[in-house]
């Protein structure tokens, strides 16, 4: 989801370069397979660039930082892999995916009891997911995502969701057809709560791995998009860089995205990082919104 280089007192970390993608944006694809959550750092706007580096043949698709899953859903829509393994350290997120996979109708039934209302939002926010069934917990996750400020997922040091209510005009809380398609896409997918190294254990040369880790912050004010209490530190960023190099030596195909800054340029030196422009939609300073540079890094140097 999701400070990376120096942990904040709350232990939260940045997930993206300050962009949130709405799964129900008016792009003519509302009833197609696509992410069902808003997501800070979602990759729908980068799918064209990402797809240039996706192998034509994939046995198992691995995504150890699944988040909103934009690339997974696009590859599933195109039937580009045989099986998939999705992971994240965000337990509530993985539980939500698992509940939709198991019985999307129960999740939709639970969502039907929610309404866009500020008082109701804070009552739902105070619920402890541990006290809820899987379907009710998944509905809570989706509801808070759709009604919270900018669709952010952020927790405090105790691991409790603390995003304030968002003010929208007639927000759509759920797209039933989208949830149905997501459930179908997840049927041949393994879902795990795991660290990224554990998530790619056993990967082979016939597989493909996409890593979209918590981004290295490019400014002192960018960490408000953080979404987990465990934190993703500089040591974790370096560990991920070492993993990428090891998988390159093992001929495993890996694609990684991160912010474009001196820290990442050093981390991925020799790995052919490529800068791409992505539109930033979240910033308190309107002048700082617009295209920003991100890096795409790959472990392989041959054509897909």
């Amino acid at each position: 989801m999701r400070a990376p280089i120096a942990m904040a007192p709350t232990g939260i970390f940045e997930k993206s370069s300050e962009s949130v993608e709405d799964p129900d944006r008016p792009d003519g694809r509302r009833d197609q397979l696509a992410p069902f959550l808003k997501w800070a750092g979602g990759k729908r706007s980068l799918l064209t660039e990402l797809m240039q580096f996706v192998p034509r043949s994939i046995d198992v698709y691995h995504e150890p930082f699944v988040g909103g899953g934009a690339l997974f859903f696009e590859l599933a829509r195109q039937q580009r892999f045989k099986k998939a393994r999705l992971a994240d350290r965000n337990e509530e997120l993985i539980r939500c995916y698992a509940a939709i996979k198991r019985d999307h109708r129960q999740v939709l039934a639970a969502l039907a009891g929610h309404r866009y209302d500020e008082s109701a939002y804070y009552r739902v926010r105070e619920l402890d997911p541990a006290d809820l069934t899987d379907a009710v917990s998944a509905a809570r996750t989706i509801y808070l995502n759709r009604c919270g400020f900018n669709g952010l997922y952020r927790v405090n040091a105790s691991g409790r969701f603390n995003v304030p209510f968002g003010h929208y005009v007639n927000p759509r809380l759920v797209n039933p057809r989208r949830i149905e398609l997501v459930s179908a896409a997840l049927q041949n997918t393994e879902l795990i709560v795991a660290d990224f190294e554990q998530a790619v254990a056993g990967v082979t040369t016939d597989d493909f791995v996409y890593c979209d880790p918590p981004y290295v912050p490019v400014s002192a004010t960018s960490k408000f998009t953080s979404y987990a209490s465990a934190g993703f530190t500089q040591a974790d960023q370096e560990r991920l860089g070492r993993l990428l190099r090891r998988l390159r030596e093992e001929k495993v195909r890996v694609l990684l995205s991160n912010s474009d800054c001196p820290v990442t340029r050093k981390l991925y030196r020799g790995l052919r990082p490529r800068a791409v422009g992505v539109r930033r939609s979240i910033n308190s300073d309107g002048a700082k919104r617009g295209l920003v540079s991100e890096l795409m890094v790959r472990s392989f140097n041959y054509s897909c």
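The chain has a mean pLDDT of 85. The first helix runs from residue 47 to 51.
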